[in-house]
Amino acid sequence: MKKALMGLLLLGTSFSFGEAGAPAIDPALYPPVKLGRAELVTDHSLIKERYIRFLIGTDKTFHGKFGKEAAVGFLERINGPIGKAMKFDFSKDVGKVFHVFQDEPGYKEEFAVYSALLQQYVLALAYGYTVNAPDNPYYQNPKVLKCYLQCLAYLYGRGVRDGMTFHYNESRLNMDGAPQPEDGAGNLVKMELRMGAYCQSVLLMEPYFKKTKMFKEARALVRHLEMLGKTSGHVRYYDPYIGPNGFNFLAQSDAMQNYGDTTLVSALLETDPKRQAEMLLDTKRVFTDSLKVVPGWADTIKPGFTGYHHRGIYGNAYTGGFIPQAAFGVYVLAGTHYEVDAESVNNVKELIKTYRLYCQKYSMPFGIRGRMPVNTDNINKQVFPGILIYASALGLDDAEMKGIFKRLWNLDDVTLEFLFFGGRGKIFRGMYALDMLEQLETESIAPEPDPNGFWYKPYGGLAIHRRADWMAAVKGYGKYVWDYENGSKLENIYGQYFSHGSLTIFSKGNPINDIDSGYNLNEGWDWYRMPGTTAVHFTLKPRGTLEHREFSPETFLGGVSADGQNGVFGMALNQAKFGDGTAINLKARKSVFFVDDFILMLGSDISGGDGEHAVETTLFQSFLPTGSNFKFTSALADPAGNRYYIPEGSQLKTFKGIQKSFLDNGKTRTTGNYAVAWFDHGCNPKGAEYEAGIGVRGATKKEYEVVRKDKQLHQVRFPNEKLTGYAFFQPLEIEDPIISDVSDQCLVMAKESAGGLELGVANPDLNIVDRSFDVDYQRFINEGENQYLPSRPLPLDVTLKGKWRLKSPSDKVALISQGGNSTVLRFNCIDGMDIRVKLIQE
């Protein structure tokens, strides 16, 4: 059934898979690397040297401008774990193999022991022993070495050895093909993504116990853990991640974070030349494939250079963790016969550039924060080492990344926390990042200007508009982009509306940030009044996780710009049920027009609801800090200073006062003082609508004309800017001076000039499957090959009034016909991307 479905959906586009799902390797895509013994030794030694140097730094690391502060931070980071390790009772439960499954009696006690040893103690001891930081009492201290070896011996005796497993429960242990603990090996829960600290500690301490039996045992375990760099998930962590031909060595973002910490470490500990060559070649291929732009819903880099995990855009944790690991892999392999292919190297750069684009500076929109809605500073803690690697002359020495570094770097805002934020169970990222920072500080670098313009990222449902130093972003969802994610650990419990057209305006603070801009999610935030969203205003109450990663049947979710400066966002909202199963049948046509410092929000054909709670479109919800003297006046503005221009007769409501809410865990109560404004559409609206202009930072209202605002079309003309934006929700013929007909749903922006026209056109449908086919996260996307289904071309004909010709040839646009007083252009749309073209009138 699945194979038949795949053939139907791909319509001639196919991937090649070998027996039992193994990828068929094309030798033309994966040529061998054949080296002589001397060349292999040189490359292996260089990669190993770089790897270790990045972890522990150099003799200069702590003697520069930031050295003293870094040394203090380093010792603060290791003092606690080393102190606990020194006091650890190695006689307690010695020889008792770890084996208790999750939720069984004794699990928490066991987990606390091996989690601390593996994620804190061993790596802290290794860093303490090998890093020559000022006033480091642990450096080359025999007691530290003794304690480290005691930790390894204790872990070995309790089953942390070659043959160990990582099953959560007995049912997973008994799955077909599941490995069983062997020869005294134990089973550890929730550690399959957190063994990198152990492996790195062995690499750092290798010279000091290499000739011992204990090293042989530790080395055997590191070899056993090689599989974790290619894992397909938590359940079947032992199965390799299988990609289609051309992506045969692809690893998803979790595995990529593991690969550099476990599999590559094993390659660097390897002494057999044949296996060294095999493993380094594998490393080259894994990094090259994993840093490619991948089709469909699979991790990690998507068309448009957004980062993916869990089949959706993940702006903070996962992409934030992927970037430094990807950059690190590129760095250690650079200039060797195993270097990562140039296209993949550039893809990481573009991913970083996109990441900094949707971070105003350090804060990102709520709709792309995954299940961690208050985590917004990942560019500082996680991504920054990747920026350093690309920018520094000690790394890749990229000129463009230097400017990005210079704009973002400020010690007070970024801090040196990125050195001590290793991720995936590691207490450090790498001390050599400090050397890279110090080196960049010696260069005379001009910071890049604040990004200005309009961008739409189709695989994220995200539109970004930036002017000066502020940013506005709107987030939607549809057939191919899910709504939100929550977590079993009570994370993002109230995130149901994050993608219902949520509009985030970061415009206030120094640096500009979410809280100063009014968004304080931890203090009385009403999660069901997200600014910009059209939603049923349910009452907040304690609750657990609800349905998440839901798609809608609508393919209309997109954005377009004519010149990269101004743009249009549009979505068809269609939500049958709320996350708890309540039928709401909520529908709306929503669009947002961005022109310089003015934003126009339109909504039409709003219907649905549960009949008890109001359907609302929220304009703003702004936190009022202690001492605020904000008051509502006839000139509507939010506390951040953004002006709102509302047509007379609108069903506008406002509120100022204390709100009661909960943290995103769904149980901890919070309160906060807020100013809120919203449109009330009633409990069961039919054909409701709204219109609201926003002048960012108090900007004056643009002159504009809403030409149409209905189920078929939202069209707005800005006469002074000679701009017209269109959101065609269906094929349509219209009476208009520019466009007379479109053959399919689309977004268009036109910019007129004397004798010319700049046109941006996008078909928002990613066209991965047929429009009649329902997309479901569990039953379809997670079914093996389906996650790689690519976007298919979707030609769109736009008929213009008058005779026009292309200013320059384009492989994406064709002149189909020209006669009478019309011109038909065919746009070869794919991936939801807009196509921009300049036309000359004849």
Describe this structure as you would to a colleague.
This protein is α+β, with helices and mostly antiparallel strands and 842 residues long. 28% of the residues lie in helices and 21% in strands. The protein is built from 18 helices and 28 strands. Strands 17-18-19-22-23-28-25 form a seven-stranded antiparallel sheet, with no helix packed on it.
Strand content: 15-25%
- The value of Rg in angstroms is 28 Å
Q: Identify low-pLDDT runs.
A: 1-21
Report helical residue fraction.
25-40%
| Overall shape | globular
The separation of the N and C termini measures 54 Å
| Alpha-beta classification | alpha+beta
Number of helices: 18
